[in-house]
Amino acid sequence: MTSRWLLLIPLLLLLSACGTLSRPGGYYEDDGPETSPPADIANIPDAVPKDEPRSASGNNPYSVYGVTYTPLADTGGYRERGVASWYGKKFHGKRTSSGEPYDMYAMTAAHKTLPLPSYVRVRNLQNDRSVVVRVNDRGPFLHNRLIDLSYAAAARLGILGTGTGVVEIEAVGPGEPATQVVKTYPLQIIPPAAAAEEISVAPAPAANPKLYLQVGAFAQRENAVSLRDRLEREALRPIFVQSSQTSGGTDAAPVYRVRIGPLASVEEGDRLTERAAQLGIRDARIVVE
């Protein structure tokens, strides 16, 4: 690879998917839908998973805005919830991180760490619509977004108007089942009152997703409580500490997560993320249960 190509990679990564959400509808500056999109956008079919070689570009570790990302070696067992956004005409026809031109009317998506290319099923947890997309780009890198969808995929999921949607994504491949079982563990909430008892809570059902802003995760309960108390004094509330076992099993040490919420909307999560950054917490992220 030439030195010129190495210099171009960071620029391509920054341009390949949408960033700051600054317009109604959730798209970036002069991005968005075209004046006359195809009339049959709702009938564009899902991407069909197939075995493909990894793309020559976009699969090595890279850094954007001071954060280093290491793409996954494979997609086995991958499933995650988060916030989806979309990108459109500003990037239509431009080179993606995989080297392919971006087609806003194809069923594609951008993701920070999934292999390029790979396939995922995206399900809108707020209306239960789902699509299968081919991941061929990197992003999104701002505003706690998990996946950046093409215009066509966003239209199918019903999130064009809002600009964002609360989704669950899971890897799919040729002949694989659409759903994979993920083991969950009991959660506990430690309320602000020091003398209060710990309360057990169950995960929210998929049909009624709840959003939280996670501002920290600690191995020591005392550190989590200290952060919770500091942010509560700054009026970031309701805030609580949630303890849960890691995937190591029942004998594994708990992880203490400091979370704010539930949030009324993705936009509230964005505002709280900016406020947390002002207080020195730059890795806050929206989580979905």
TrEMBL record:
One Pfam family cited in the UniProt record for this chain: SPOR
EC number in record: 4.2.2.-
Keyword flag Signal: yes
UniProt-listed InterPro entries: RlpA, RlpA-like_DPBB, RlpA-like_sf, RplA, SPOR-like_dom, SPOR-like_sf
A GO term, aspect molecular function: peptidoglycan binding
UniProt enzyme class: lyase
Annotated stretches, region: Disordered: 26-60
Keywords: Cell membrane, Cell wall biogenesis/degradation, Lipoprotein, Lyase, Membrane, Palmitate, Signal
Transmembrane segments: none
Segment forming the signal sequence: 1-22
Bilayer topology: Lipid-anchor
GO biological processes: cell wall organization; peptidoglycan metabolic process
Domain SPOR positions: 205-289
The UniProt record lists the keyword Lyase: yes
Localization annotation: Cell membrane
GO terms under cellular component: cell outer membrane; plasma membrane
CDD domains listed in its UniProt record: DPBB_RlpA-like (cd22268)
PANTHER family xrefs: ENDOLYTIC PEPTIDOGLYCAN TRANSGLYCOSYLASE RLPA
Alphabetized HAMAP family for the sequence: RlpA
Function per UniProt: Lytic transglycosylase with a strong preference for naked glycan strands that lack stem peptides.
Family to which this protein belongs: Belongs to the RlpA family.
Protein name per Swiss-Prot or TrEMBL: Endolytic peptidoglycan transglycosylase RlpA
Organism this protein belongs to: Sulfuricaulis limicola
Source taxonomy: Bacteria, Pseudomonadati, Pseudomonadota, Gammaproteobacteria, Acidiferrobacterales
Gene: rlpA
